Amino acid sequence: MTAAHICSDCAVRDRALCASLDDAELNALNTLGQRRTLQRGQALIWAGEESPVCANLISGVLKLSATTPDGREQVVGLLYPADFVGRPWANTADFTVTALGEAELCVFPRGPFERVLEDHVRMERLLLQRTLASLDEARARMLTLARLSAREKLAGFLLDLADRSHGCRATAFGPVTFDLPLTRGEMADVLGLTIETVSRQLSKLKAEGAINLMGARGITIRDRAKLEASSQ
Amino acid sequence: MTAAHICSDCAVRDRALCASLDDAELNALNTLGQRRTLQRGQALIWAGEESPVCANLISGVLKLSATTPDGREQVVGLLYPADFVGRPWANTADFTVTALGEAELCVFPRGPFERVLEDHVRMERLLLQRTLASLDEARARMLTLARLSAREKLAGFLLDLADRSHGCRATAFGPVTFDLPLTRGEMADVLGLTIETVSRQLSKLKAEGAINLMGARGITIRDRAKLEASSQ
DNA sequence: CGTATCATTGAAATTTTTCAAATCTTGTGG
DNA sequence: CCACAAGATTTGAAAAATTTCAATGATACG
């Protein structure tokens, strides 16, 4: 956790909520924000607890998760750099926020941040538009979770990750290779499956030539068309 | 579809988004709004199509649904009176909006409505807060859809409906009786199950004495504690 | 009152999970 | 640099849950 960062140097200055602020406004916000680093597995917010912070994610990936009283878990959202973290105007958090890998955040105390939001219409509007988009995304994922088969879930998820990753490819339209940012267990939690089912479906997709697996994390999309056909 | 309605007579005047407007502002909005009635099964918005309207739901229940290309359906949200309908700032709709029973709406053309939102900070803030709440709800439902058993889904859903319904009860803490606002098929679409599974779980809950079924629609919560135990 | 729709129930099939055991990775300390 | 331990992944076999297919029964509406 370090202080004294300058917003103009921020990697997500133009993509986070702050993009709606001019330099003067940004300075005001700057005094509120604190840089913070989370290690893999470390949580920022716990479901059921008071959540005194909001944040912008600067680097890394966070998961939002819910659990049943008896411990079944479901990841209900993934957050990427420039995404907004937290829930303004709610005293207790509904979901746990955890880092999947090392992550950097710009953290604000919730109350003062709410006041900034209320004083800056453009920022509030941007948050509204993002929230509407997140809601659409969450609803689309309800269809996935409830109605797709394990194979369809996996294929679709791999395509998502491939599109988001800046993986390398040998030729312009050749196979993409990248590292999975999640373990099998985390993928299972995202897709509403078990580790074993995830592993079996990956093995099957590999056997069919749609993908290639190298080590635990490496993956190559070898036949995107086949993966797309499997995803639907 | 009738015109010339007065907002002050509106059943949801104090609960819909309009609650954020004073009488003068409301008059301006009034000239934009059109009353419209939907019949059971009739759609207001189709997924994938341009959606030129937003609305406030005045009476009845609407479903928001998504479908896979091969026709599997999932209800991703239910809307009740005073809820906001539609998706400002999106050209095409992601979800289909259909009336479960007869429903009354106050419909606005989307563009002008967006301008009203942009000009009325309090209304925009109220929509933001509702959207944040809907997002929490959608995420909570992701846990339900992905991780609960058929019995748990049914029990939880019946408790929800019971709490929302103004069903009658013989004594203050006695059993509640009400009519299910959905068919078995619609419940299946909400819970991510098949009609047959819904029917079987209801029969089982009845056999165990947790509920009673009368005809296709009538239901009595006979042992709430047992239903709660089954829901988790 | 008949007909179309909705609901229930049974039996078989399918999918996914659970339980159990290897096997592979990865990071660490010798 | 290698061996090893801890954790992660894969794979198999059996069990469980849900779906699918099929038939029958109930309800409601014209």
From TrEMBL, chains A, B:
CDD domains: CAP_ED, HTH_CRP. GO terms for molecular function: DNA binding; DNA-binding transcription factor activity. Keywords: DNA-binding, Transcription, Transcription regulation. Residues 148-225 form the HTH crp-type domain. The keyword Transcription regulation applies. The keyword DNA-binding applies. This is CRP/FNR family transcriptional regulator.
